[in-house]
Every structure is written in C-alpha cells, then in structure tokens.
C-alpha cells in the first residue's frame, strides 16, 4: 500500500501573519490525518519572510499536540546549523511528549545566506563537511537498550528517536491491560535472549491500559511506548518505529518464547530469509473442539507459509520496505505482512511451537469463536476493516488467574 505524506513550510500568505500561517498548518495537519496521510513534516528555513517554520521543533510540537495518530517530524533539520546535543534534547523531548509519532529527518546543507549562516552557527565552526561527525555525536546521545541500562550504562535523560543497531534484536510487545500475562512473557523473552546470547531490547507498547501494565513493563527494564490506538496493527507499528535493532521480533503479551525461537529467528535471517514465524501450541486446558480446530487451521495456514501475530520476526529493512503492518486491517494483519515480506525474500516457519494463551477459547463459547472465524473466512478482507464485528480481538476480556 503506497503511503502519502505532507511536507509543509508554513507559508505566510501576502498580507497575512506568522500566527495565521501556524493556524493554517495545524488545520492542514488535522485534515491530512483525517484523509489518511502517514506523515506530516515541517521544513527548516531561516530568515525567509514568507516562511514561518524556522523554529521547526516548536511547530512540530504544536502540530503533534493538535493531532492524534499522524506521524509528525522535520524534513529536515540542517545539522550543520546546530549543536547535536540541542537537537537530541529537542527531539527527545518531543518523543517523550508524543511517543512513537516523531520523526527526525536530517540534512547536511548549511543553507541560508552567509550572514544568516554565521548568525545560526556563530562559533560552532561547522559546515557540511563535518556532517558525519555531527551525526555520530547525535546518535551517541540516544538511549541505550533496556538490558544495558540494567548493567549501569549511561543514557540520555530524553529518549530521542533511536539509532539503529545492526546486531541487536528488538522485541516488541503490544499490550492492553495485560498485568496478569505480561510478567511471564517478559521473563521468557529475557531468558530466551540471554540464553541465546543475543544483544536485545524490549519495547512494550502500552495501548491505553488502565491496569498495572506500564508499571510491570518498567520493572522489567522495558522501554514503554504509550499510545491510545486500540488497533493492533498500528500499535505494533508504533513499537517498530521506537525500536533500535535491525531485527524486529513481535511477541504477543500472552505468549512465551524460548531460546530455540530466538536462535532460529537469527539463523533464518542470517541465511537470507526476510522474516518468519513459528507454529503454535495453546497453554492451559482448552476443549477438544478447540485443539481439533487449531490442528486443521495450522495444517492449512502454515503450509501457506503465513505467520501468526503471537510471534513474528523480520529484518527491519524488509519490514520497512513493505510499509510494516497494514493499518487498514483490525485483525489478520500478520497474514498480510507475511505475504508482503515474501516479496522481499523467503519466509521461515520454525518447527518448534511457541506457547500462547488459550484464554480466548476459555472465555468464549464455541459458537462465538467459530462464528468469528467463519465470518472472517467468508467475509474476506472487508470483514477485517472494521472493529465492530471483531470482538474476539477487541472486547478486552482478560483472565485474572492465567495458566
């Protein structure tokens, strides 16, 4: 799916004012969000009478505060004009205020006329030739992964948009009121990654939880991204945007993985696979009909080389090349991502099953579970574009005493 974005300079019309230009920018951003645009970027230009976006970070904050979902950022900040620490603090603050929605685009051109350039840089002594060093310094200010923080390494006060670390795995856990399941899931991820001897971080995307989800995530050293989306694909994408690693591993909050899955995922990606998933086993007691249904489903689904949302991994490059999870779908987005990833390379299904909760089956009668399943099967893609008929995924029911 081709995504469209907006680049705005906050132009001041003839006879108008900067205040009016900012009101027009906010109005356009709100409409762009309603129309389904993906990003809204502001450009940095200085000492130009017809452009109001000179204080780019300030305008970005205003636009982000007036919108809810659209990504907002700079396209781009001319790094030679600024001390890297200042940019890290500005955009780290924006990311802290609007988690998972802030973009930092960078440029190396000093720009502007000579007098303006001198006024901007003063004694920085910076020009386009120093861009690689400036960029490296900027990246050095970004936050360390969760397990590095536990070992006492220093990180910035403000977690700015993270640099990408090629050797690191980013485990992304979407969570809505998961205080009962989340501790076992995070513990399993930590043990799996450490036994597999992999550098890693854990990102919990807290989607409007009203329980102790956030506190539990932080107690495990996870980086928490707070969103209010109630749309699984969008929540997972928010986690991917906050991730530092070049390997993305999506794990549901009620799913347990082991070192076998981590090692298998890493080996598959090193062998040239674009992504993959694993077979599924249900944790706890479930009715016989459910195990029969899961067996039939698995025989077809995994033969088609499709991944389950409970555990799905991908190379970041491949994930971004296909646009991530398709946010037009409120369920089944993992199947569409699997098919998209196949356009970037092979797709691996690990033989060792992950263990995921059977709570949906325990909390709902057979006719409801089968009815929802057949509704999707016969309704096709259109049945997944509206949350109203997808209560199996969105009714928010939770077991208080998980297995």
Helical stretch tally: 16
Succession of helices and strands: EHEHEHEHHHEHEHEHEEHEHEHHEHHH
Shape: elongated
Q: Do you know the CATH architecture of the largest domain? A: Alpha-Beta Complex
Q: Between the first and last Cα atoms, what is the distance in angstroms?
A: 39 Å
Largest sheet: 8 strands, mixed
Would you give the CATH topology of the largest domain?
Spore Coat Polysaccharide Biosynthesis Protein SpsA, Chain A
Features:
Spore Coat Polysaccharide Biosynthesis Protein SpsA, Chain A; single chain; TIM Barrel; alpha/beta; 12 strands; 403 residues; 20% strand; 16 helices; 40% helix
Q: Would you kindly provide a written description of the structure presented here, covering whatever features stand out?
A:
The two termini are 39 Å apart. With 403 residues, this protein is an alpha/beta fold. It has helices at 18-34, 56-66, 84-97, 114-121, 131-140, 146-150, 182-195, 213-219, 232-242, 259-270, 288-301, 316-321, 333-341, 359-363, 366-379, 391-394; strands spanning 5-8, 39-42, 71-78, 102-107, 165-175, 199-207, 223-227, 245-251, 255-256, 275-283, 311-315, 347-357. The chain is built from 16 helices and 12 strands. It is elongated, with a radius of gyration of 23 Å. The strands form 2 sheets. The protein has an 8-stranded mixed sheet, sandwiched between helices. It folds into 2 domains: 5-140, TIM Barrel (Alpha-Beta Barrel); 165-394, Spore Coat Polysaccharide Biosynthesis Protein SpsA, Chain A (Alpha-Beta Complex), CATH 3.90.550.10.
